[in-house]
Amino acid sequence: MSDEHKCPQCGCEHIYQDGGLWVCPECAHEWNEFSTSDTDAASTGDVRDANGNVLSDGDTITVTKDLKVKGSSLVVKSGTKVKNIKLVDGSDGHNIACKISGIGAMNLKSEFVKKS
Fold first, then answer.
1. Quick check: 116 and 60 in contact, CB under 8 A?
2. Among 13, 72, 85, 95, which has the highest number of CB atoms less than 10 A from its own CB?
């Protein structure tokens, strides 16, 4: 099978099409066949959400997975909306700086959010 029929994130060959998106059953990565590849996005500096949409400063996002807050017993629940995000260059992969009500200022990884 060619590379175009593999998951760009984990390399799985068991991908399937769901509407206009391709889905990987192993890592749950979703992408558009006609969008630029993840390597192109990384080279241009674009920050993309879990669905491949380009994020920018001031956007509103929704958390797609329950996230534990490190060093605390708090949890950011799936479905939490976060307004007015700021994109940062996080060397540890946390490339979104935001303020979540009830928790405070924190950084998130773009792979766990979707654009609202």
1. yes
2. 85
Q: Which domain holds residue 29?
A: 1-37
* The two three-digit tokens of residue 63, written as one number: 């958390």
pLDDT tens, N- to C-terminus, the chain (116 residues): 444 678 888 888 888 888 778 888 888 888 776 654 444 444 456 889 999 899 999 999 999 999 999 889 999 999 999 999 999 987 788 999 999 999 999 999 999 999 98
In a domain, 46, yes or no: no
**65 shares a domain with 32:** no
Single-letter residue type at 4: E
As a whole number of angstroms, the distance between CA 32 and CA 8 comes to 11
Opening angle at CA 108, ends 106 and 112, nearest 5: 145
Say which CATH number the domain at 13 has. Answer: 2.20.25.10
Give the DSSP letter of residue 110.
Answer: G
Cα 71 versus chain centre, distance: 23
**Residue in the block written with tokens 């924190």:** 106
The token duo for 24 is 């990987």
